[in-house]
Design goal:
42 residues, mainly alpha, 2 helices, elongated
Length: 42
């Protein structure tokens, strides 16, 4: 993975859509993860 690809991945992992997906992930009604990512340097 090069720096450009890594930045693209970081941008997606810290995006609003990723937050929605992570916070909404449930099994048997139990939330398994809580979004807490911040972009590097912040």
């Amino acid at each position: 993975m090069n720096a450009k690809e890594a930045k693209t991945l970081e941008d997606w992992l810290t995006s609003n859509r990723a937050q929605e997906l992570i916070d909404g992930y449930q099994i048997n009604g139990e939330t398994l993860f809580t979004f807490n990512a911040t972009p590097a340097g912040q």
